[in-house]
Specification:
The chain folds into two domains: 181 residues, Rossmann fold (3-Layer(aba) Sandwich), CATH 3.40.50.10490; 116 residues, CBS-domain. It is elongated. The two termini are 37 Å apart. By secondary structure, the protein is of the alpha/beta class. 46% of the residues lie in helices and 15% in strands. The protein has 16 helices and eleven strands.
Length: 325
Amino acid sequence: MTLPAAAIGTSSALEDGREVLRAETAALSQLAAGLDARFVHAVEMILATRGRLIVSGIGKSGHIGRKIAATFASTGTPAHFVHAAEASHGDLGMITPDDVCLLLSKSGATSELSDLISYTRRFGVPLISISGNPESTLAQKSDVALILPDAPEVCAIGMAPTTSTTMTLGLGDALAVAVMRAKGFDPERFHLFHPGGKLGAQFLRVAELMYQGDALPLVTEDAPMDQVLMRMTGTGYGVAIIVEQQRLAGIITDGDLRRNMDGLMSKRAGDVATRSPKTIGPDALVSEAVAMMNGNKVNALCVIDEDRHVIGMIRLHDCLRAGVV
């Protein structure tokens, strides 16, 4: 049921929302201004690890930790979230001396983290922490302690994790991006970890969608029109590609056929072909191919190599079906 605007106090709700966002923005700015050599040291520790980044926390910090681990994993740093409570009941076995731990706790005194702290100290697992108390057990036991500014929580009672979790998430993103850039993580590797959905579609290469080999509707210049029509209809692509010594010599589309209807069946492929069709390379992004097809009002592109050998064909229909728009 939707309440009338007057019933929820529109102006009051808007001001509450803006106040929260302004306060959290100010806290993030304070956090950014306070970054120092400890942040650099944390980045270097993550870069140096031969294993994974193990992230842990409890409650809201745990939820933030899961997101931080997912961000690292998707940007080239193997990462895994370990639930702090489950760690004390066997999941400590997931952590090895080759890993580095990132523990999250605003107070730095979360009891569920005590076994994780002890384990890292006993077996020499590098420990990074994010907390709001530099005097806490967690901060004191860490190899690198990243301390959040003393900014108040913005909930109505000043107790629910809001500002602190926003800062923790922001600091996690900052670490992940700094590590990502230091590793030279590029779009090609990003696509390896994001093959699905819109993100994956943006990084598809032409070679991944193009038709090639026996699927190509290839004909020679002297091919009679009945053979050309059979190739066009047999493949279902609505085009025929003319090659001479495997090099592109032209293309025949439905439009070429319509423009040459007079005496069409007595002609040869070379008589009706478009001689300079639009082409693209196999390493180009599919999004580039779509832009080229839309800009030139064509539905297919020949894919050629540096010597103009025809190695494939890509169609607008298949690009759209793959989610590239």
